[in-house]
Design goal:
Length: 487
């Protein structure tokens, strides 16, 4: 985005232009401070960017996996509203699971489950729940894994139906090997009884709209938030170097002393006062010179990431379904989720058309990771034709994208490894590491933005804040009223 010459002595060097890095740069710019942002990709926005696909005069926009905005932090809504004004809109939410040819609301609606599954299976859900309470409450079985947590709260049958199968698709490992932190973030405060209360009309349905019913979304895709930040930054003199990356981070054990940046124009060395890093923590550790102790490298080597493969179809069809997105927990269906961007904003595709986004979860060793576009299309098309979503002749074009380091895997040893790495990195006093990849934390946009904002305060105020307080409430993140606009 800017000239290939990198400022040799920036006050702050920001590595990675995703939500976390950009929020930091934006807050610094607002305080009248310039910084240098370095981003590996051509486009800023990280996992939350919106891609533009041109087919002749027709333009299709898509997030890389649908991104709705939700937060309990008023500051963030104001932050985005200031950037997007009337482009920032409320969207009604419809999210469902599709199991054995039937739709189920998400989050789970017990009444609907009973109607669709029938009396016997519903009785089974009740008995399993009773047995689970007995095992975990009365007999005191400890909650050591994600599986324990969801079985204790929902009983095995409902847990498998609604959470375990889908979670195993995301992570590619058994839920018995997933840390309960994942459950705290996803379902804390929810259990079979609360779901039942909602089903029979107590709680949830009355009162203000909640994050379950509606969310905020920019008119032209979630990436507009980050493009708007980019525009503001450039107007305030902040340098953003895209297609550039750090290749060496030198330190003296106490401070980062210099960073070599590879840009399209060659490698340049910079000596920043502060480094705010949001690139994958495992990759960052490999750049350190001298290398970290072997125990730290071993801990980094034990951290695992899950990748994603995305198939994007443009369709000559008015609409596939009314859903924002649909989950497919069944193990015999190769993809995990689909989304239709038109149902977020009609401006995401030309009139009379729609688009369809299909997400797969993968390790590099999985077959899907190496498959070609046409192979992937042929694998999934029979499902969509059978369910009457669309037909081969509706497809205009098909695109395939792949991304690594998408999900930090919360396996049962991740926490110890992350803590060890952090105790080492915290010894570098001018380093602040933030964001989903930078802290190996499963964050949404709001928590990444918040971390970036906190990082800027550390720079501006010259003091440390505890980054782990972001999202530390450990509450089911869809609870709470939706924010009312101020303008
Ligand atoms: C499929 C999917 C759906 C999601 N849905 C939602 C949603 O509905 N709502 C929501 O709020 N959030 C959602 N998220 C989460 C959201 O995308 C992330 O929380 C957010 O993007 C994280 O921001 P970040 O800055 O921490 O990290 P990232 O977005 O990962 O940004 C890191 C940046 O660093 C860059 N980088 C990496 N390596 C290097 C390097 N070596 N040198 C230079 N730059 C580098 C990357 O290119 C990237 O731009 C979703 C994520 C996914 C994958």
């Amino acid at each position: 985005m800017t000239s290939s010459k990198v400022n040799e002595t920036p006050e702050t060097l920001v590595l990675g232009a995703g939500p976390a890095g950009l929020a930091c740069a934006m807050e610094l710019a607002r305080a009248g401070r310039r910084c240098t942002v370095v981003e590996r990709d051509q486009q800023i926005g990280g996992l939350a960017k919106t891609l533009t696909v041109r087919e002749g005069d027709d333009v299709f926009l898509t997030d890389i996996g649908p991104h709705r905005f939700f937060s309990k932090n008023q500051y963030l809504y104001d932050f985005i509203e200031d950037l997007l004004a009337e482009e920032w809109r409320r969207v009604p939410r419809l999210t469902r699971q599709f199991v054995e040819g039937k739709y189920y609301n998400y989050p789970v609606n017990f009444g609907q489950v009973v109607r669709n599954l029938g009396f016997l299976k519903s009785v089974r859900i009740g008995i399993d729940y009773f047995l689970a309470r007995l095992r975990y409450d009365v007999l005191g079985k400890p909650l050591r894994t994600f599986e324990d947590y969801v079985v204790a709260n929902f009983g095995r049958s409902l847990a498998e139906f609604s959470m375990i199968n889908y979670s195993e698709k995301i992570w590619g490992v058994s839920c018995a090997d997933i840390h309960p932190d994942w459950a705290k973030q996803r379902i804390s405060g929810l259990n079979l009884l609360s779901v039942l209360r909602n089903a029979i009309g107590f709680g949830g349905k009355k009162g203000p709209k909640s994050l379950v019913d509606e969310f905020y979304y920019p008119q032209f895709g979630t990436g507009r938030i980050y493009e708007a930040i980019g525009e503001r930054l450039l107007s305030k003199g902040t340098d953003i170097h895209t297609e550039s990356r750090p290749v060496r981070v030198a330190h003296d054990g106490k401070r980062i002393t210099e960073v070599d940046i590879e840009t399209p124009g060659g490698v340049q060395t910079v000596r920043p006062e502060h480094v705010v890093e949001s690139v994958p923590i495992t990759a960052f550790l490999e750049l350190l010179d001298p290398k970290p102790p072997q125990a730290i490298l071993d801990a980094a080597g034990a951290l695992r990431w899950r990748n994603q493969v995305y198939l994007f179809l443009t369709l000559d069809k008015e609409q596939v379904t009314k859903d924002n997105w649909i989950y497919f927990p069944q193990k015999d269906i190769p993809f995990g989720r689909t989304s239709e961007m038109k149902n977020f904003s009609k401006d995401m595709c030309p009139e009379g058309t729609t688009s369809f986004f299909v997400e797969f979860f993968a390790f590099e060793s999985d077959k899907i990771w190496t498959m070609e576009k046409d192979e992937v299309l042929e694998m999934v098309l029979p499902f969509f034709e059978k369910w009457d979503f669309f037909k081969r002749e509706d497809i205009r074009q098909c695109y395939l994208w792949k991304r690594s380091h998408v999900y930090p895997i919360y396996d049962t040893s991740y926490k110890d490894n992350v803590e060890l790495i952090r105790s080492y990195l915290d010894g570098l006093e001018n380093l602040i590491y933030v964001g989903r990849p930078g802290r190996f934390r499963y964050t949404n946009q709001d928590h990444s933005l918040e971390m970036g904002i906190i990082a800027s305060r550390m720079v501006l105020e010259g003091r440390r804040y505890d980054m782990d307080t972001v999202g530390a409430e450990n509450e089911y993140f869809e609870k709470g009223p939706i924010y009312e606009k101020r303008i």
